[in-house]
Amino acid sequence: MLWSVYATDDEEVRDAVVDQACSLGAVELFTSLHMPETQDPAGWVRWMGHVHRTRGARFWADVSPAGLARLGPVDLAGCGVVGLRLDYGYDVQGVRAVAAATGLPIALNASTVGAAALDALAGVEGLVGWHNFYPRPGTGLDGGYYARQSRLFTSRGLRLLAFVPGEVTRRAPLYRGLPTLEEHRHRDAYTSAVRLRALADGVEAVCAEGVVAPRHLEWIRRAEDGVLTLPVNLAPGCAWLEGDWRLRVEETGRSHRLEGTRGRALPGACANADAMETGSLQMDTLGRYRGEVHLMTATAPLDGEHVRLGEVAAPYRCLVGLLRGGQQVRLVRADRPAPGR
Fold first, then answer.
1. Which among 159, 151, 165 has a CA at the least distance from the CA of 199?
2. What is the structure's pLDDT at 37?
3. Residue pair 224/328 in contact by the 8 Å Cβ criterion
4. Other CB atoms closer than 10 Å to residue 131's CB: what's the count?
5. Residue 80 belongs to what H/E stretch?
6. DSSP states of 40-75 as a string?
7. Whole-angstrom Cα distance, residue 168 to residue 208?
8. Are strands 227-234 and 328-333 parallel, antiparallel or unpaired?
9. Which pLDDT value is given to residue 333?
10. Contacts of 137 (CB under 8 A, 6+ apart)
11. What percent of the chain shows pLDDT beyond 70?
12. Which residues contact 265 (CB under 8 A, 6 or more apart)?
């Protein structure tokens, strides 16, 4: 995961972002060198150089022709800049010229670039796709368009990045979140990052503003390693469900079965709801299937053959539809305190 830091951020926010990013070792940060509201762009570049030298941070910088002109001659690599994101103001020839002049990898706006432009840029070293974020509610991408644009890069074996909104602070100009996908505007960074990856395999999530809640950061890292964390509310006596499970490979359209649960003893005190709802954990009571636990992926009527053990917590239930047979999941108590809290 990557983070974002800007000249217009409060010092407290900047420090928190750098601290969280550096706590994970290798650090890449996204920033902008063309924000018109930045009063002292040269001072910002000096700050970047200081953080690069003292904390090991490396920067991908959003630039425009006007922004580079305002900066004047500057040793970008010496300030920790390892790549440039070129958005408006650059045609194919302009992109090639910047790449040749700086020797830095170039990120293109993955939300708008077309296949013809990508083909025309074949041979440019270190080409990357980097989606936009969208401050104005209602202007973020929809999932289908995002997936199609992303395939332009993933099908060519190019690195791809996209934004998720922050969880602690919001940025100007509107303070309404900075997502790539509109559906993520009011969601947490964890579920947003998982959804981005489900639509574009291998995409790297970038927190667009501030920091991420510690437990969500941990879960994002696990998801990148192939383990999806599902916070759950469990009935009394069902704590044994906490931990790692593998879903059986068969997909029924109704539920995923947890491997290794068949034969478990029935709980003593569980109450059914009005239905076997999506996201609920249901234990089979029928014959040789007795004890097997189903994670419901669709709502089904009560049948007298299952008892309810708990459910995926509401803020994370959107992840249930992303599960696939054979996947590894980790069930954790939703009410467990976050690390370090």
1. 151
2. 64
3. no
4. 27
5. none
6. -HHHHHHHHHHHHHHH--EEEEEE-HHHHHHH-S--
7. 11
8. parallel
9. 97
10. 174, 176, 182, 185
11. 97
12. 291
Instruction: Let me know: does 1 contact 222? Beta carbons within 8 Å.
Output: no
* Contact partners, residue 145, CB within 8 Å, separation at least 6: none
Report which DSSP code applies to 322: G
User: What's the pLDDT at 141?
Assistant: 99
**pLDDT the model gives residue 315:** 96
Containing H/E element for 151? helix 143-154
Question: What's the confidence (pLDDT) of residue 67?
Answer: 79
Q: Closest Cα partner for 64 from 28, 126, 109?
A: 109
Q: How far is CA 92 from the centre of its chain?
A: 29
Asked if 263 and 291 touch (Cβ cutoff 8 Å), the reply is yes
In this predicted structure, what is the pLDDT of residue 106? Answer: 97
pLDDT at 107 over 50: yes
Tokens 């103001």 — which residue?
89
Residue by residue, DSSP assigns 137-201 as: TT-SBPHHHHHHHHHHHHTTT-EEEEEE--SS---TTT-S---SBGGGTTS-HHHHHHHHHHHST
The closest alpha carbon to 43, from 7, 12, 77, belongs to 7
Q: How confident is the model at residue 340 (pLDDT cuts 50, 70, 90)?
A: very low
Residues 175 and 136 sit within 8 Å (Cβ to Cβ): no
Domains of the chain in start order, with CATH, are: 3-225 (3.20.20.70), 229-333 (2.40.100.10)
- Spatial separation of the C-alpha atoms in residues 163 and 202, rounded to whole Å: 14
Q: pLDDT-based confidence at 337, cuts 50/70/90? A: low
Can you tell me the distance from the alpha carbon of 294 to that of 284, in angstroms, rounded to the nearest whole number? 8
Mean pLDDT for 156-172 is 96
Check if the beta carbon of residue 258 is closer than 8 Å to that of residue 295.
yes
Give me the pLDDT at residue 38, please.
72
The region, left, alpha or beta by phi > 0 then psi within -120 to 50, assigned to residue 10 is beta
Residue 162 near residue 152, CB atoms below 8 Å: no
State yes or no: pLDDT of 262 exceeds 50.
yes
> Which position has the token pair 């059914």?
272
The SS3 assignment for 296 reads strand
